[in-house]
Amino acid sequence: MIRHAKAPIHHMTDSPGLHLKTYFLILMIVVFAPLGNVLLSKGMKNVGPATQWSPADLWNVFLRICSSGYIWLGVASLLTFFIAYMLVLTWADYSYVQPASSFSYAMVALLGYLLLGEVISPQRWFGIAVICFGVLIVGHTHPRTTAVKA
Q: How far apart are CA 111 and CA 128, in angstroms?
């Protein structure tokens, strides 16, 4: 049986601005993912529930969805998030990006409070603070630990 030695994990040499562009795109992820979801929520609350399932009623709901500015802003925000997410994953480790993007939990609570009028309990804020503390720990590690494939 042939055993392959595992390559040692090492930190990649920083290219100019690696940390800056990584932080910038993670900031975009943290802002635009929750913003898009909150805007979709606000838009769908304005559209109202689909209580009837007849084709005419569903078509009416669909038209209200398509004419909602909140929905379109939400879709644009989520597309911005998705592009930033894909870009940052081209050079940073997933095990770095995903935890670092968890700052979005704080943004979700803040936007829910400001835009949707939700009440955020102290217990929920404490839980969000614990998550953000963990994100700060991950943020002090290197964004890439694997070699770039040629």
A: 14
The residues, any chain, with a CB within 8 Å of residue 138's CB and separated by 6 or more, are 96, 99, 100
Do 46 and 70 contact (CB within 8 A), yes or no?
yes
Output the furthest CA–CA distance in the chain (Å, rounded).
66
Give 10-26 pLDDT, tens digit per residue. 444 556 577 788 889 99
Q: Which stretches within the chain are classed as H helix?
A: 18-47, 55-66, 69-89, 94-100, 104-116, 122-139
Task: Output the six-digit token pair for 18.
Answer: 């690696």
Q: Are 65 and 43 in contact (CB under 8 A)?
A: yes
**Contact in structure between 65 and 91 (CB atoms under 8 Å):** no
* Number of C-beta neighbours around residue 20 at 10 A: 9
**54 φ, ψ to 5°?**
-75, 155
pTM over 0.90: no
- Cα separation, 47 vs 6, in Å, equals 55
AA letter at 133: F
The burial class, CB within 10 Å (0-12 / 13-18 / 19+), for 119 is exposed
